[in-house]
């Protein structure tokens, strides 16, 4: 089972969603307070079931909340989760293959809704 690991960061607090195998699935922005970080976690949990918009292929745009798959400047696949208001609430790492990127999204969908919140010491 996955967990949200909350930790201090330069300028505030952030979280990583970590899968049961210890791999980081997604990372948050840096929040100023622990309370706002926990609201960000709640938003990921709420929006984890969102659809996927693939920006690497021509297709229809879907409304927020949504996951977006895209290519970064180095040509690697990444994803971001956008809340209903369009704000990015979590981002994934870089993947060489799109299938691996989509598997990262599937892991969020599986792990985030019931993931425990753990604060790093």
Output the CATH topology: PH-domain like
Q: Going across the major beta sheet, what is the strand order?
A: 3-2-1-8
Largest sheet: 4 strands, mixed
Spatial gap, N to C terminus: 20 Å
Poorly predicted residue ranges:
none
Q: What structural category arises from helix and sheet content?
A: alpha/beta
Residue-averaged pLDDT: 94
> For the record, what CATH class applies?
Mainly Beta
The total strand number stands at 8
> What Rg, in angstroms, do the CA atoms define?
14 Å
Helix content: 10-25%
Order of helices and strands: EEEHEEEEHE
Please supply descriptive tags for the structure shown above.
121 residues, PH-domain like, globular
List the helices and strands and how they pair.
Layout (H helix, E strand, L loop, with lengths): L2 E7 L2 E7 L5 E4 L6 H14 L3 E4 L11 E6 L5 E6 L5 E4 L6 H14 L4 E4 L2
Parallel strand pairs: 1-8, 4-5
Antiparallel strand pairs: 1-2, 2-3, 5-6, 6-7
